[in-house]
Design brief:
Layout lengths: L9 E3 L4 E3 L6 H6 L2 H23 L5 E3 L1 H16 L4 E6 L5 H11 L3 E4 L5 E3 L20 E9 L3 H8 L5 E8 L9 E5 L4 E3 L12 E3 L17 H10 L14 E7 L3 H10 L7 E4 L4 H6 L1 H15 L4 E3 L3 H11 L2 E3 L7
Parallel strand pairs: 3-10, 4-5, 4-7, 7-8, 8-9, 11-12, 11-14, 12-13, 14-15
Antiparallel strand pairs: 1-2, 5-6
């Protein structure tokens, strides 16, 4: 390439990436020598190769829903521990408390936690064994069952067991194959990488994710108000979020089929609820007729295009039909929380 042809910032077909305002950018490129541009192209190709290797690691990633965790805990783990002589259940904070509380309820056993001094305490002060349902519970000399949702390195499980004086069993619903010997019982082996619905928006993976807006961060706009512009804007401004899906760290970006004319009200809403993001990509107003003709095709094509151009590893999409098409068009990992009874 002897001369840069880009009239403004945007996606460059030569470098195969976005050329933005931060140097080296499209303005730098216009004044750079052919040798400088060729060197930068080689650097870009090396970077793209590294990114592809990284993305390939996630091609077989698994997404585990809350409902699947409950099923696997009940159907696969419970049969392995149901006949054990157990005196109580200890959940590893925080996510281990999810399966621990279910197991304690199913087996009608006390549920405990460790305080800062490593004292074993019941989750409720109603009785020395816990809640009101434990009024007639008789203590036993059985072992304490230590429960976690997942075991990756096994460090957390080993750490808490080292603080306990009681005899224990240990278990997890999911274990990394290399760490399965850390626990006495488990439901399933689960390879890395994997994403878990119960902590998806709290984990570091959200920093590598593009998010849909309506249906993910808040409910979809009711159909009956879409054609009334005043009601539509008022709804966008005042809709309550899905609090459990507000990301706790900055996400890679938000890509939405909302039109650009709603940017101000959308940015104000995001500020109000403390959502941090690198970029907010909204559909151009001139695509309105096209989207009206075929919402699923137009929206999925638009989102997939930006997903492909991004170095994001995941796209979190609300609509099943769009999620399927984004997967097909991008050949990258797409999560649809509603797809698997999530």
């Amino acid at each position: 390439m002897e001369k840069c042809q880009c009239p403004k910032h945007g996606f460059c077909q030569y470098y195969k990436q976005e050329m933005t305002y931060d140097p080296p950018n499209w303005q730098w490129c216009q004044s750079a020598t052919p040798e400088e541009r060729e060197k930068y192209k080689l650097d870009c190709e090396k970077k793209h190769s590294r990114e592809k290797e990284e993305l390939d690691k996630f091609s077989d990633a698994q997404y585990i829903t809350n409902a699947q965790l409950i099923r696997d805990c009940k159907n696969l783990l419970l049969p392995k521990i149901g006949n054990l002589h157990i005196k109580g259940i200890l959940g590893l904070p925080r996510s281990g408390m999810f399966p621990a509380s279910m197991i304690a309820t199913w087996l009608d056993l006390p549920l405990y936690f460790l305080d800062l001094q490593n004292n074993l305490l019941p989750m409720s002060g109603a009785t020395k064994f816990g809640g009101i349902r434990m009024l007639h519970h008789k203590g036993s000399n059985g072992r304490l069952l230590v429960v976690d949702d997942t075991v990756y390195s096994g460090k957390a499980m080993k750490n808490i067991k080292s603080k306990l004086l009681e005899d224990t069993y240990s278990c997890a619903v999911y274990v990394k194959p290399e760490s399965k010997d850390v626990v006495d019982f488990y439901a399933k082996e689960l390879n890395h990488p994997h994403l878990l619905e119960w902590n998806l928006f709290n984990c570091t993976y959200i920093q590598d994710s593009l998010l849909d807006f309506d249906g993910i961060l808040c409910p979809n706009v009711p159909f009956e108000i879409l054609e009334d512009e005043e009601k539509h804007k008022n709804w966008l401004s005042n809709v309550k979020p899905f609090y459990h899906r507000l990301p706790k760290s900055k996400c890679k970006g938000i890509v939405t089929a909302r039109f650009e004319r709603y940017r101000d009200v959308t940015e104000d809403w995001l500020r109000r609820y403390g959502v941090k993001y690198e970029s907010l990509t909204m559909m151009p107003n001139e695509m309105e007729e096209e989207r009206l003709r075929d919402h699923v095709e137009t929206s999925s094509t638009y989102k997939a295009k930006h997903f492909v151009k991004s170095d994001a590893k995941f796209f979190i999409e609300s609509e099943i039909s769009e999620a399927i098409k984004i997967r097909e068009k991008s050949d990258k990992f797409v999560i649809c929380p509603e797809e698997k009874d999530g």
